[in-house]
Write a structure and sequence with these properties.
By secondary structure, the chain is of the alpha+beta class. Among the domains are: about 130 residues, no CATH class; about 80 residues, Immunoglobulin-like (Sandwich). The strands form two sheets. Strands 3-1-6-7 form a four-stranded mixed beta sheet, with no helix packed on it. Strands 2-4-5 form a three-stranded antiparallel beta sheet, with no helix packed on it. About 5% of the residues have low confidence.
Amino acid sequence: MIAAILLGKFRAPSRVVATVGPEFEAIIMRCLKARPDERYPSAALLATDLRAFTRAAGLVPESEALRGYLDDPEAAIAALRPRVAEAAVAQARLHARRGQIARALAEIGHATAYVPNHPGAGRLLKRLSAGRTAIRVAVVLAALAVALGVVWLSRPLFAPKAVRPAPPIASPARPSPSPAPTRPALIPSPAPAPPAPAPAGVTETAAAQSKGPGLPKARGGRQARLARSPAVAPPVETPAPPVTAPAPNPEPAPPAPRVVVQPRPGTIALFAKGGFCYPSLDDHPAGDLMPLFRDVAPGKHKIYCSRTQGSSKEFAGEVDLPPGGRIERTVTEQGGRLTIARPR
């Protein structure tokens, strides 16, 4: 108990004895302070606080109260209980009016410790409980109102935003192919109209006039046939179809580069049972009893072991390392021949 008092780690007097009130407990706690400058500097100051406490508790005059306690302790305590309880309830009301709910509840506990069914303490406790319930309800309602207000104010932040259509991307205009040169169409010349038939008399006269004195009749018949033959129209040339330039063939896309995935290297750890030789891997020199080979390429590798660091390497076995794997092997000797085994 003395060590607990020195360290300041002891239970409060009101937790040990329920009838100890807050004022009396404050006096006791000041007397039990570990630092001397925090305790009462003199017994006179302690007596002053004790007299003030007894007056507040109704123990006046002090000499008569002390005499009554010495004469009959039980009767003095029985007569003192109601007065102490009333004083505690009065202090609890004062603390409740000041809003000091914790101290008011402590005084109510002090009063019920002296008088368990004190009516004033019970009424005050119900009123404080109702007030605390109302305060809790008000706090919950206020918190709900604040939360609703925050949600209402932040509503525009969570509203879906209208998506604006992206402006159309103008594609670069492609040059239109130049039209192929076309040949001008030949307009056919109108055929000459056939000559109108002349009257019979006029025809004979013209034929007689056309006869010369020395011309033979055969020539006159040929001219008549030429005059009677219809005119032949010249041939009409058909325009050639336009020549369209062939479209250029699209260039083939270059082949995608091939990504060569390199296999992950692994690790091989070698040991020698009893340390009788120096293991090594492939072309690595022997120089350690427990070599560890990192970044080893996957595949088959040969394991050797040298009796001494300067002696020749003896073949012990072969392992197949998977990509990114780890292999541990122990070199042993059986019948004068080196072998490899998995470590136990």
